[in-house]
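Late entry, evening session. Most of the bench is empty. Finally got around to the prediction I had been postponing all week. Sequence below, unchanged from the version circulated by S.P.
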Amino acid sequence: MNATKVLDAKGLACPMPVVRAKKAMDELQSGQVLEVHTTDKGAKNDLPAWAKASGHTMLDIKEDNGVLMFWIQKG
């Protein structure tokens, strides 16, 4: 999946992945995609909830070797 911006939030604890994702999303235009990489297991619930509450679309979530990857389209 092609992302406009990739955010490396690995090693950061809650709530930092969401805080960093919000800041990164502010730099994007509507329709562009943010790819977030994190090792925070809480992000499995936090990022989709934040995306929905903020009017963004969660396109995909994958996990590879303990790294969670999210693709979020800006609303």
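Two things to note before I forget:
The chain has two helices and four strands.
The chain has a mean pLDDT of 97.
Will write this up properly tomorrow.
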